[in-house]
């Protein structure tokens, strides 16, 4: 099905060391026929965060709702709705929600072979 | 600058045959260091539409605001906020705004060499 509402897409806990109170949905991935990049939607609950980590692929992010913070390398930036983030490959990064409402963002990544 | 608000990013008219009343912003592209895919934001004004066309690369779309219609091949689908679209490579498609308020969506495409 080439068109879906997010309410039709299953949500899973981000089950990675260093992640707390994060849920994610795979909105577009190889199961829909995407060969080059995948679109995910993250919900970071109040107090939650993604892992502080790096990997050889980039992120492109768009903030849909709420407020949060992104660390990229040694810098931190405050984020709000309609902000765009580019995280270069190989750069340490983390998204955090220090606020009291959900912080929701899209995260697009290249489809890479598992290492 | 790896973090920007959309208000800091210039908007341009979609200047392609068959497009009417569409403005677009390049949110992430190769000028920011992206090598694999680019993120654009389209504002389709009431009555506006993108061209009915096809190309050898896919689209991944996320609807941010408003309502509209997407044609994919011979099918049409109604769209609203928080809907996701995957348009396979080589498939004819068009976004239209038959409503009376702006229809706003993200469109992610692979970065391809001009043909």
List the keywords.
homodimer, 115 residues, mainly beta, Jelly Rolls
How would you explain this protein's 3D organization?
2 copies of one chain form a homodimer. Chain A is an all-beta fold and about 120 residues long. Chain A has one domain (about 10-110): Sandwich (Jelly Rolls). Helix content of chain A is about 0%, strand content about 55%. Chain A is built from no helices and 10 strands. In chain A, the strands form 2 sheets. In chain A, strands 2-3-4-10-5-8 form a 6-stranded antiparallel sheet, with no helix packed on it. In chain A, strands 7-6-9 form a 3-stranded antiparallel sheet, with no helix packed on it. In chain A, strand 2 and strand 3 form a beta hairpin. Chain A is globular. The model of chain A has no long low-confidence stretch (mean pLDDT about 95). The interface between A and B is medium-sized, with 35 and 35 residues.
Tell me the quaternary state.
homodimer
Mean pLDDT of chain A comes to 95
Quick one: biggest sheet of chain A? 6 strands, antiparallel
**Number of structural units classed as domains of chain A:** 1
Largest interface, C-beta closer than 8 angstroms, per-chain residues: A-B, 35 and 35 residues
CATH architecture of chain A: Sandwich
Would you summarize the structure shown here?
Two copies of one chain form a homodimer. Chain A is mainly beta and 115 residues long. Chain A has no helices and ten strands.
Q: Strands, helices and their partners?
A:
Two copies of one chain form a homodimer.
Chain A: E1 3-5, E2 12-13, E3 20-28, E4 37-49, E5 59-65, E6 67-72, E7 75-80, E8 83-87, E9 93-96, E10 103-110
Antiparallel strand pairs in A: 2-3, 3-4, 4-10, 5-8, 5-10, 6-7, 6-9
């Amino acid at each position: 099905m080439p068109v879906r509402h997010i309410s039709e897409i299953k949500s899973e806990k981000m089950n990675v060391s260093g992640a707390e109170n994060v849920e994610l949905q795979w909105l577009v991935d190889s199961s829909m026929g995407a060969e080059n990049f995948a679109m995910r939607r993250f919900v970071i609950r109040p107090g939650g965060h993604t892992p502080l980590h790096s990997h050889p692929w980039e992120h492109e992010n768009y903030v849909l709702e709420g407020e949060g913070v992104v660390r990229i390398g040694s810098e931190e930036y405050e984020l709000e709705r309609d902000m765009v983030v580019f995280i270069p490959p190989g750069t340490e990064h983390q998204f955090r929600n220090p606020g009291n409402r959900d912080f929701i963002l899209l995260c697009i990544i290249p489809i890479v072979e598992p290492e």
